[in-house]
Amino acid sequence: MNDIKLENSLSPSFPKIRRISETIGNIIGLLVIGILFWLQSFFDWPIWTFWILVGLTVLTILGIIWSIFEPTYLYRSWSYQYDDEYLQLSYGILQKEWVTVPMTKIQSVTTSQGPILKRYRARSIKVETVGSSHAIPALEEEVAFALREKIAEFAKLKEVDE
């Protein structure tokens, strides 16, 4: 298989950031399931609701196990590259995605930072075109700002040239 790696990758702290984020989501999910179990017992719901909750619990536990390993594999698969013509993204574990965005089609580029990204001095970048948007989930702050400026510069230069 021809698996060409693009030259840039995500922040090395991406797996840790992703695990923390998914852990928060998993805890909330387990709390909701726990509350539903309590409600099922307290209100004496039919027995089939108990089995649905058991099924949800099993699926949640499988999701928790997957969320332990997935960030490392996703980090290894994520890469990007840019020049004055294109922004290229490559990512995916089971299904590899290759995205090529022409600089002439980019309408906006933004960076965002939530509390977890802020803790690790990282930012995500979102590039929007007329029909779609693409995100790079976690870059170091300096890299994210430089990439945002470069993409904005390339997109503006190409627009002026035409």
What does this structure look like?
This protein has 162 residues and is of the alpha+beta class. The protein has two domains: 62 residues; 82 residues, Pleckstrin-homology domain (PH domain)/Phosphotyrosine-binding domain (PTB) (PH-domain like). Helices cover 53% and strands 24% of the residues. The protein contains four helices and six strands. The strands form two sheets. A three-stranded antiparallel β-sheet has the order 1-2-3. It has a three-stranded antiparallel β-sheet with strand order 4-5-6. A hairpin with a 3-residue loop joins strand 5 and strand 6. Helix 1 packs antiparallel against helix 2. The two termini are 38 Å apart. The mean pLDDT is 92.
Topology diagram in text:
Elements: H1 14-42, H2 47-77, E1 79-82, E2 86-91, E3 97-102, E4 106-112, H3 115-119, E5 122-129, E6 133-140, H4 141-161
Antiparallel strand pairs: 1-2, 2-3, 4-5, 5-6
Mean pLDDT: 92
CATH class of the largest domain: Mainly Beta
The assembly state of the depicted protein chains is single chain
Could you describe the largest sheet, including whether it forms a barrel?
Answer: 3 strands, antiparallel
Q: How does CATH name the architecture of the largest domain?
A: Roll
- Count of individual domains: 2
- C-alpha termini separation: 38 Å
| Helical percentage | 40-55%
Q: Name the overall outline.
A: elongated
Beta fraction: 15-25%
